[in-house]
User: Fold Fe2OG dioxygenase domain-containing protein from Paspalum notatum var. saurae.
Amino acid sequence: MYGASDPAAAERTAFRRAEKQYKLYKPPNLKGRSRSRSRPPVFRRCRSKVSGGEGGGGDLSAVVDFHALLAADQELPAGIGRHDYAGFDRPVFCFLDRPGFYFIPGALSTEEQCYWIKESLKEFPQPPNRTNLTAIYGSFSDLLIAAKNQKILVEMENPDAQERNEQNNCSGITQSKNFKFVEDSEILKGEKCRSTAATTLVRKLRWSTLGLQFDWSKRNYDVSLPHNKIPDALASLAKKMASPAMPPGEEFKPEAAIVNYYGPSDMLGGHVDDMEADWTKPIVSISLGCKCIFLLGGKTRDEVPTAMFLRSGDIVLMSGEARESFHGVPRIFIDSDQQEISELISQLSSGDDCFILNYIKNSRININIRQVY
Assistant:
């Protein structure tokens, strides 16, 4: 349920109006400025003091800030509650009118955030995991290493495929190609070939799939596709964090994950995650890097969504009725809001991963883990 059958009708819905309100606007002739829009505050007692930032965003006073609520340690605004779960050592918030939705602020330490950022860029795009780049360039490894070494991906003729075509007398079939990372100096002058800088490919990375592979064209899980199981460390984390949303006596079984990569002006339109068999089981959603606005709506786009800040290290759980709720990300924050991830930047600065440091200053990564069956 990723799109509306009538685009014009979708533009008139409450969810679409909220997306437009919080979207980052950068008119071509007015770079750095924005259209300002306002919305009456819903949770007046948890207004954010965060400014609109570079490029727009309008009035953010209605955006729920769970970190501010946690720091204030006072009576919660109407409609927001605390979810107490035996044996869980972190605070958990919920919306009283959105059963099955849970917000765990600051669930991951700075060290844990750094680890998962590195894994998301180094390991998660590795084959057999598929990414949005796979359909265009085929399967290739070590994208991050190639980017750090300033390599270029070039299209090469595949002599084996050519030989097979000739043997099978398939003269009418287009010759197969493959891609390979090379040094700039290895590209022969005057030779025409399709090439893309590895650094550009990292910025074009939008998603990767772990565990059971999701087929975006058919919108289902294709168990026939080669895949590895969810990494043990990620599975263990997901099981632990999912516990407040699990039915009593049951344990979460991580079988698939989708990693989303957001650039400075990227957004995720309103949708419902409805491809898993059992909606009582939660989606465990981990936020890393730049802060964003997350919209949580109802079962139709006509219901007014609630906006909230998601920061690096926050975890959201969506289970039961919340699995039927439209949700999306209309905006991430960069540049003027670096203080939000200052500890993360400091931690990454101490290592030798300058490329990762520069990437995360202007990006957000979201890892959402699912139990498919």
Notes: The CA atoms of residues 295 and 307 lie 5 Å apart. DSSP finds eleven helices and 17 strands in the chain. The first strand starts at residue 80 and ends at 82. The first helix runs from residue 7 to 11.
